[in-house]
Amino acid sequence: MIIMPVMLYAKAVLSGLLLGSFANLIAYRLPRGESIVMGRSHCPHCGHNLGVADLVPVFSYVWSRGKCRYCKTAISPRYPIIEIITAILFMLALAAAGPGLPVFALGALAVGLVVITAIDLEYQIIPDQASLALAGIGVAYHALTDNSMDAWISGGAGALAGFAIAWLLRIAFQRLKGREALGFGDVKFFAVAGLWTGIYGLADFMMISGLAGILFAAGWRWRGGDAVFPFGPALAVGLYAVVLLAAGGAPQPLSLLMLR
């Protein structure tokens, strides 16, 4: 029946919007050392506690015309943008994996990647807490989708290889250019990505992340950004793309297809 897929995607959108709002909260509080579970949401400008009407994803922003209802200070459009992006990522996860428990792990991955992207764009760091959370979600995802010994060995090898490759790239660039190309948070993220993709998907992750990084860097410089470019958003795109392609049954790694 047509109505069933429509209802599933509607639920995915709603879940994405709600968890996108939660991603906003994490991205705001985590770098500031604030609890993500305790304390009411409040306006960062006037400190007024926000009510339910102020926290409806996207709608509250549109209804208040992008301003705080209490102090009338402009609210950054990043909040509805993050909520909409998270909803889109949830729809993509459902399209790739279909209904079932694995799609919840993919949704959690989406939230984590959105948080990392938002924080890295603002502070140019990837918090260890976010990377550890994604590693734990990755373990759960493997347990749900492929609990074989080969899959666990591939995931472990991918994590070790990802860390080693990123560390070598970091050292090489430091010696050649005299500055960092990859922060240590990026190096740790490579390990997390290798856990998710396995050893055979690591090349795909690096290829897609590299291409995304070129595009993001061009946009960053065009907008007047400084020489230090946050690579986290490109890494997030690369990881989510590879994981979704694998969940959707991609027969071979993209890198191998391109070599043919």
Account of the protein in words:
There is one protein chain. The chain is globular, with a radius of gyration of 19 Å. α4 packs antiparallel against α9. By secondary structure, the chain is an all-alpha fold. The chain contains ten helices and no strands. The longest helix is centred in the middle third of the chain and has 29 residues. It has two domains: 99 residues, no CATH class; 160 residues, no CATH class. The mean pLDDT is 87.
Topology, element by element:
Elements: H1 3-29, H2 59-63, H3 78-97, H4 101-123, H5 128-145, H6 149-177, H7 184-197, H8 202-222, H9 232-247, H10 254-259
Key descriptive features of the protein:
69% helix; 260 residues; globular; mainly alpha; 10 helices
Q: In a few lines, what is going on in this structure?
A:
The protein has ten helices and no strands. It is mainly α and 260 residues long.
Task: Tell me what portion of residues adopts beta-strand conformation.
Answer: under 5%
Shape: globular
N-to-C order of helices and strands: HHHHHHHHHH
Q: Uncertain regions: pLDDT < 50 for 5+ in a row?
A: none
CA radius of gyration: 19 Å
Summarize model confidence as the mean pLDDT: 87
Number of helices: 10
**N→C terminal distance:** 40 Å
Q: What composes the largest sheet?
A: none
Structural class, from secondary structure content? mainly alpha
* Helix share bin: 55-70%
| Number of distinct beta strands | 0
- Please give the domain count: 2
